[in-house]
Amino acid sequence: MNTTSLTALADEHLAEARRSSAGRSAHTLHGGQGRVLRQTLIALAAQRRLGEHESPGEATLQVLRGRVRLHAGEETWDGEAGDHVEIPPTRHDLEALEDAAVLLTVGLHGVPGA
Prior knowledge:
This protein has one helix at residues 6-19, and strands at 24-30, 37-44, 49-53, 59-65, 67-72, 75-80, 84-86, 92-96, 100-107. The protein is mainly beta. The strands form two sheets. The chain has a five-stranded antiparallel sheet. A four-stranded antiparallel sheet has the order 3-8-5-6, with no helix packed on it. Strand 5 and strand 6 form a beta hairpin.
């Protein structure tokens, strides 16, 4: 059985995001080629964002640390540690309102090339 401390991983990647010129760091915990489920921890330094991008399909976002803002079309969602949201199937971006770590879970059924 593989186990991971999300707390330790969030700490590690938040430190990396703060050092990075891009202001972010990520690590895939589960998934990849031949898998149906992918989970990725994403750390963003305060005031940094993941630019607008297409929806990966069925996906959720769980905030592990800090506060974030998800923009999807006309909709905006603010989340903080402990919050969970279903990502709308539209173009969207994610902004860190303060140093933040999130867990992105994506179902890869029906995604070309997955």
